[in-house]
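Researcher: Here's the sequence for the chain we discussed earlier.
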Amino acid sequence: MHASKSSLSTWSFELGFMLIFLIGLPAANLAGWIDINTTTLWGRYLCFAIAAIGVDLIWGYTGIMTMCHAFFFCLGAYGLGMYLTVANLPDGKAVPDFMAWNQVEALPYFWLPFQSFGGAVISGLLVAGVFAFLFCYFIFRRRIKGVFFAIITQALALAVFLLFSRNETMLGGSNGLTNFRYFLGFDLHSESVKLGLYLITVFVLIAIFFLSKKLTASKFGKVLVGIRDSESRLRFAGYKVVNYQTAIFVIGAMIAAVAGMLYLPLTGIITPGRMDVKASIEMLIWVALGGRGNLKGALVGALAVNLLYSLFTSWIPEAWPYVLGALYIITVLYLNNGVTGLFQTAGESLKKVFKVSHAGTV
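Model: Thanks. This is the structure I predict for it:
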């Protein structure tokens, strides 16, 4: 009986999430209660939630503060954006306008793998994974961690932001990639296509959530927590800590790339502004507010902060930076386990009060 109650409690969040986002929102849209733009907006939030899961695996479970995760998010978005740019070129046109303006008459060599949908997906994931591996493996081997690793990743975020903003990179410069009308033959302006993209995003989020949950519950996940809590003990016990750190960093980067690929058709544009330092810091705030080391917290934090962002930037946009800063300060000072930890503590307290009162009445 006790086991069944525990199992029900474990599944309550997942079931509630699926009822709201997999059934509730699409049904409300089809019934005409909410418009397709609102549904698409929530789809973007869910893409951010996918990226937050990757951040939580790296930072929450392994203790590696990454401040360049938005870059990997954008690598996925740019990869799919390159395919959509080529697929939407008018007949007889070999290159997009931003290349023609620079007297470029043929697609650069690094665009070639992205001319098909399958090639774009595979290449986008490979680029994110390989770059993450090359970037972090040698840093971890030098045992650089903590604030020093955070500063290095912050420098990387700034460097790639400046690089992608240049017209010479042939990626649209500061304007990015946009003006997509068709995706695999489907009209991206169609409401049914937008709803379909939203549902795909929900399914991918659910799949990544459960796969990540299984990963953290495995021996591999236990080692990650051990690295976070006492890296020196794991090294003394004979574990190859560098391999585990590198593996989870690559996994988190590829999860972010998947989120970026889902984000692009929902939004219709990707610019270097999405990969700057501020964007990566915001991802850390999502996870911190929701609750580090808790996949549910990553989802809640990403959805809550982005919902607040939309509300405040609509009502009083100048106040948003102060609200975001206040949320982070409150989280650091008073919510060590985030919002989900607060609710869990409150729930346990209520159970104890209920048991005491029930025992007193008996």
